[in-house]
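Please check what follows.
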Amino acid sequence: MQAAAKTQMTNLEVIKGAIAAKIDSAAFTSWIAPLSFDVVDDTLVLGAQNQFSADFINSVHSGVLAAVAAEFGLGLNIVVRGTAARGAAPIANDNKAQAYAPVATPAADVAATFDAFITTDENMFVVSACKKLAAGLVPFSPLFIYGVAGCGKSLLADCIAGAASGRVVKMSGAQFVSEFTRSLKEHNVFAFKDYCRNCETFILDDVQALSGKKASTEEFLQLVVDLRNAGKNVVLTANAAPSNLTGFDRHAQGLMASGLVADVVAPNAYVKTTMLKRAGVKADVADLLATRIANDGHMIAGVATKIKTYVDLMGAAVDMDVASRLLADTLQAVKTPMAMVRDMCEKLGVSYDAVCGNGRSRSLVLARQTMMAVLKEATSLSLAEIGNFVGGRDHATVLYGIKQIEKQKACDLVLAAQIQQLVCECK
């Protein structure tokens, strides 16, 4: 009897090894290793922790599992562990009776609609992608949205959450790390896994918060793979493109970039003006304020709130003089062309004296011509006036420089994006 039991255990280990050889190691560790293995009536019976795990394994891994079972002359049956054959060995990680609930946090704005996001030509692509994903009409996953702080990434994530059908799970990167760590300490990590996977759309805001958190990152990457294999939507947001995220290896960067990567451009003058008008700021005041507020959606919302609060408390309209006093700690000084040029020198890593000098190195010429192109697009200066701010260049030199930049932008998307960002900062 003991010999027969030992032989069966050996055969089960061989079967398990054969499965491990055909399934990704991370998927095997997360899903297959915790299963109970038994053979009943020429059938390989795999006992899952709960119904969700059984359904997920059935939908994603049943093909490989059935093929391995067939190699040993067995059929396959994946069940919830309580219904498995008698005598199945208990698993230490069995969480059948456990439950998981996240710590209460401010909920996503599920009332947010895409009308709340002010769409410009620069952001038309990312907004269209978000709408298609929310409608379930896209073949890509994950959708990776990136941009500087205040550009509207979180608002787009909320819009997707509000428009998507089925269950949506939305977390911040910091919350994911915290909840995963808590589930490990409370020994209900499988319940946490089920919570994240039992959805139609999973949204993780601010992925960069996982940087340097090895265990959390590994769990997150396996989650993305499992959801993608199950045909679910994954939406990720970050402050940089996947290839520029620090603290992530190439595998992680590649996985995050394997769907669709789209950037969100910072609010321009039109967006800032529209946001202020929607908040009830008078049109003439909104137009003037837009030129003196940073391209940051959070700051614009703060300005609108402060003006609305002033009107409610004081019962008086806000003109530009009042707004200037009220927002003295927020408004930027009016940008002059000279200030723009000096600011661009700092961002492009060249000195102002070098730009105005006669240096002809490749990097210096590119920086000088870039400034000409930015001033042309961001201001109403004539070509001759632009030339005066970059070392007294004549009209023909400025025109030539701008044409050279336009040619390079057509084949250099990085340069095009950099110039667009500089234009937004100068407006």
Summary: Residues 337-426 form a domain with the Chromosomal Replication Initiator Protein Dnaa; Chain: A; fold (CATH 1.10.1750.10).
